[in-house]
Amino acid sequence: MTSIMSHLPLALFTTLGALGAGAFVGLAIAFVKGGLTAEQEQAADRKTPIFFVVALLGLIAAVFHLTAPLAGFNVVNGIGRSPLSNEVAVFSLFMVVAAVYSVMAFTGKLGGARKGLVLVTAVLALVLGVMMGMAYMVYTIPSWNNPGTVMQMLGFVLAGSALALVALPAGDGTKAVKLASVAGLVLAVVGLAVQVMVTGGVTAAMVTGAALVSQALPLVLVAVVLAVVAAFCLLKDKALPGVAALVVATFVARLAFYVMEIGVGL
Distance between CA atoms of 175 and 45, rounded to whole angstroms? Predict the structure, then answer.
């Protein structure tokens, strides 16, 4: 339980940051696919700042994880050399672009720049998912240093596409967004399964991976069940219940991820 509480800010960061970024992927899919009227696009634009705020709340949660505010400068100094620093750099760039897009959208200034700018924001969101996963691939923590870690974070960003449904009109035009979100859920669940298998085979001086898997198993099962519920609701055009289940599933999965932290000696 202590481990969970100590990682709670990061669990919130990786949940809100990933899903908030993923919402822009959903917007990009909807706008590029087309089929929306000008009025529907403008209605979506007015709700776009919601997604930026979600990602911003994730960033604020991450700041609370720092033991000292000045530690942030050390992170910045490692850009290009440290996966953690690269994550911070990409997240910062994403937030700047997302802020510009959100402000222009809310004020009705996007015009013909909508598709181009939302595509750039979406690509940055997907790159962010990869960087968030790679930041945890520390060779002294084998339960994290495996492909499942990146699969989970990229999956959660893609699953976050469903958040865009809050701003988009119901109908066949959002089918691609829902399918992208379900695909992300599948990728995240597979990544979590990979982590469980890897962790189960790790042995350290004070604890075994199998013991940690046993501790995390209830959280893993809850996350998987909620992911299935979210996918079912999305495919059945029940967007709000689907999004709610998605958010909780992501958060619970992140808690399970941190429970399965097992380090080995240098």
Answer: 19
Residue type, 266: L
Q: In sequence order, which residues have a C-beta less than 8 Å from that of residue 6 and are 6 or more positions away?
A: none
148/198 Cα distance (integer angstroms): 9
Other Cβ atoms within 10 Å of 77 Cβ, number: 11
Which residue in 261, 257, 252 sits closest to 228, CA to CA? 252
Per-residue tens of pLDDT for the chain, all 266 residues: 446 777 899 999 999 999 999 999 999 999 998 888 899 999 999 999 999 999 999 989 887 755 444 455 555 555 656 788 889 889 999 999 999 999 999 999 998 899 999 999 999 999 999 999 999 998 889 999 999 999 999 999 999 999 999 999 877 679 999 999 999 999 999 999 999 999 999 887 778 899 999 999 999 999 999 999 999 999 999 999 999 999 999 999 999 999 999 887 54
- Report the alpha-carbon distance of residue 125 to residue 157 in Å, rounded: 7
Cα–Cα distance measured from residue 96 to residue 98, given in angstroms and rounded to the nearest whole number: 5
Cβ-based neighbours of 175, under 8 Å, separated by 6 or more: none
Distance of CA 242 to the CA centre of its chain: 16
Is 11 in contact with 258 (CB distance < 8 Å)?
yes
Specify the DSSP class assigned to residue 146.
S
CB atoms within 10 A of CB 209: 20
Distances (CA, A) of 243 to 23, 124, 179: 11, 22, 13
